[in-house]
Write a structure and sequence with these properties.
By secondary structure, this protein is of the alpha+beta class. The chain has one domain: Endonuclease Chain A (Endonuclease, Chain A, 2-Layer Sandwich). Helices cover 36% and strands 25% of the residues. It has an 8-stranded mixed beta sheet with strand order 1-7-6-5-2-3-4-8, with helices on both faces. A hairpin with a 4-residue loop joins β6 and β7. α1 runs parallel beside α2. The protein starts with 7 loop residues before the first strand and ends in a 9-residue tail after the last strand. The relative contact order is 0.20.
Length: 162
């Protein structure tokens, strides 16, 4: 990971590198669950072939990935590899969207409890952090739990027509 020793990043390139490294670490550690949260994931490297490969390695039995976004149109348009991967693993990936009162306050967050927490704190300046501190994971999970309580299923893996 091309990050300073303190786990902070402050450029778009460092953020994307941190996301790639986080997925590699999650696959290696075999985290049981992964949470992804962002307004639209437009700037995340989800279409990166290595990210998709790490997710494929990770997506074994008893794994769960929960994705929370206000909008999924950017994912469909910018991340076709991830969309294809998700269709093949719809039993693992669950997509949700918050109610209207929460859509503008979604944090940029990748959480794998017991493994790592990646936060994008300032979207304009690309400032954030990646940490293995359990206290960070607890705070992130509490924030996600609040969002989950007021969310609905979204972005189905396939659409059925009659």
């Amino acid at each position: 990971m091309n990050l300073p020793a303190d786990g902070l990043f402050d450029t778009r390139a460092q953020f994307q590198s941190a996301v790639r490294s986080a997925f590699a670490q999650i696959a290696s550690a075999g985290a049981r669950e992964v949470w992804l949260c962002d307004e639209d994931f437009a700037d995340w490297p989800l279409n990166d072939s290595q990210v998709v490969e790490h997710l494929s390695q990770w997506a074994g039995a008893h794994r769960r990935c929960t994705v929370m976004a206000s909008r999924y149109d950017s994912i469909q348009r910018l991340h076709p590899r991830w969309v294809h991967w998700r269709r093949q693993r719809s039993h693992v990936v669950h997509c949700r969207t918050p109610d209207e009162s929460q859509t503008n306050s979604l944090p940029g967050l990748l959480l794998a409890p017991g493994c790592l927490t990646l936060r994008l704190i300032d979207r304009e300046r690309w400032r954030g952090s990646i940490s293995a501190d359990p206290a960070d994971a607890v705070l992130a999970r509490e924030r996600l739990d609040v969002l989950m309580q007021r969310s609905v299923e979204a972005f189905p893996s396939s659409t059925l027509g009659l």
